[in-house]
Please model this.
Amino acid sequence: MTLKEITAKVLGMDANKINGKTSRESTSEWDSFNHLLLVSEIEKEFDIKLKMDEVNTIKTFADLEKILRTHGK
Amino acid sequence: MPKKEVAELNTTADYIRAYKNKAVLSSLPNNVKKLRVAILASSTINGLKEVLSIKSRDFGIDADVYVGEYNQYTREILDDKSELYTHKSDVIFLFIDTRAIKDSFFLNKKEDSWVNEKFAEIKSLIEKLEEKTSATIIIHNFERLTNSPLGILANKEKNSFTEMVGELNRKLVKETMDNRRVFIFDYDNFLAKVGKEKAFDPKFYYLADIKLNLELLPELAEAYIKYLIPIAGLTKKCLVLDLDGILWGGIIGEDGLSGIKLGPTPEGRPFWELQQYILALREQGVILAINSKNNLADVQSVFKKHPYCLLKDEHFAALEINWNDKIANMKKLAADLNIGLDSFVFLDDDKTNRMIVREALPEVLTLEMPDDPALYLRTLSNLPFFNKLKITEEDRKRGDQYREEKKRTEFKSVATNMDEYLKGLDIKVEIKKADKFTIPRIAQLISKTNQFNTTTKRYSETEVAKMANSKDYLIISIKAEDRFGDSGITGVAIIKMGSINWHIDSYLLSCRILGKEIETTFLWYILEEAKKVKVTDVTADFIKTAKNVVSAPFFKKSGFELLNSSDVKETWKFDLKKKFTKPAFIKIVKA
Model:
């Protein structure tokens, strides 16, 4: 699964509607529990572990993409 | 087992998505059992409700799940008016986490009283739940943490937290050992199985007090379902086995007695241990049967002569070893054993056979077997469907009872007529009021008897005990034996006693003993008891289900008159001035 597909699944959104600017603030489904669920699903799918700090700094879909790159994915 | 609209679900997010998708929920089959489940937890378990609700469907259960507020379990249990009590749960899980019950678990100060205090606290919560509900209560035991600062001395030093938790766990088990309603879920062992470090991600704990990783919620749900299955009465009764490639490696017809793989060798051990496991299942009441394409003589030679074949002819209640197709054989087994196909679990190593059986007989649970025999035992032991809430004396005797039944059938085939057969059986029955020794078995019969059951009302053990102690109800059971063996308690009647009328609320008998007029004798007893207290008539309902057609003619045949009837329910009445004859060949022994 792609990052976008995972995000769409967790947030219950259409993947086409997700872009770099999709943010926690502007997306009601992206609440604190779904945020952690999203991290958990990403970790499982890409076989990586995010740091606590990273989990806290993610505010937008672009942040997610950036962090995934720093983990070499 | 309903197949399988949620089979593609893998991760926790998949389950949550499916739960939120109303279309999925409403499209689910309607023959599922409804259960009300409450979960109280000390830490964050968001997501468990959704995962458990969806996953339960796979096992034929429609779970209405209530999750208590975060870390409010004590208040909810102590407050009579809490939401927990308005939920009216059938099952309550109490999930208190180790890290929640102690402020600091690294300092090993002298704390002699800690275990006793915690134990008393939990005990009082359990007692309150027992008093306020009629639910089955399931208490998580506590994780023994793996990060003790004592290191290798964690089980040498007296005040080691690891050991204190171990002691608390042992005390909980001991306390509830004989309690029929309260179960200790070995959560520590569950975590050991999935891996404690895999189960616990410190960042989720620090960020949100999540102590079980979200990705493991489906595993926890499955562990919970092991309890839900017997509570919903979905325990399977019979394990049907293929032979070649299941009970031994190789093909007996080709490899011969010395060529098959079975016993303490690398290739033989997986089969040998599987046989040990299956034999243990039999000892706790699972009926064994064979459905195999083979020459009977070849198979008999393995049973008789192979030094490591633990399963013998006598362990099987029925054998279909022939060249007929597996579907016909399966139907024959169900008919011979007099149990429904939906009580069968089928083990076959051949993919095509599994497909054929699954296609033709979807009610049989055909287990998906791994290609590697080394994994057979794990596959079978992970199956939740043989779980029971208790093992009764009847369970332990069941295997032998089926063997006795085979002898009965042989005896019947040589008797010249039915009367001679019944007389020759030398049947004795013992009828007695429910007491604490018989109530577990009575509750078991109530929960699983489908065919000869006039109203199919399901009562929990607690409800049965309550009725048995009430002046308004008479609960009696019947135990039968004949020259071939003892069938144990195989029938139950619940009667609501009024001053002029007795009403038969429930009347059920195990199919195994039908056809010998034991059911008539049991009814005669009730009518006689009613006469003794000057009751004028006895009434009874017949409530039609998909499975109880065999009991439909019973009241009419017994001389009852129909009072009224609708599509689903008939009410029958017997005027006690009428004569009712007891079958002459059955002896009633006073208990």
Observations:
- The mean pLDDT of chain A is 95.
- Chain A touches chain B at residues 6, 9-10, 12, 32-33, 36-38, 40-41, 44, 49-52, 55-56 (CB under 8 Å).
